[in-house]
Protein 1
Amino acid sequence: MEKIKDKNDISGYSFASDDHQTSILSFSDREATDITLPEYINGKPLRKIGFSAFRGMENLRTVTMPDTVHIIENSAFRSCPALTNVVLSKNTHNLAAY
């Protein structure tokens, strides 16, 4: 079964923010297959995908990142066997091992 999450649906995400930016710490929607990450959370740009943030999301096939994302930390998408399509931000300048 396909479950698409658009950029306006922030359920399932765990975030951390400071005065200037937001990071995704984890994602818990195990049914999601295709997601578009939000550009802004509470008025702050999404800048970082944290360590193991999407680890073990077995149904995840496609991830689309907004151009606000600059950093993708280690193992952000480890153990996501169905993941075949990732659309990176044109501003990503730090892409760690899967």
Protein 2
Amino acid sequence: MHEVFDVNMYCQELSKSELLSARVIGWTGRWSLFGSFVLCCQCLNAQSVDDAGCAFTHLPGCTAGQTGSNPWRELRQVLMDVPLPDHARARLGDPRFI
């Protein structure tokens, strides 16, 4: 008998990795961006960026409902670790960018 591979749980574990690339894969394996909406890859329910401060509502029976309720916050955490290009880092001392 074959063991069932749970993509959501695998991606959840990747999201905890020290490697930035693994965390990006972990996020994109569970969520998808579509314009200004984030969608759950399991139930396909969506949430607008305007509602990012609210918990994500999965559809009934969604297997990801147990582990993912703040996709925008998770995305922000991942993106905060993306290094800035050299020219952007040089401008950070400019008061217009603080």
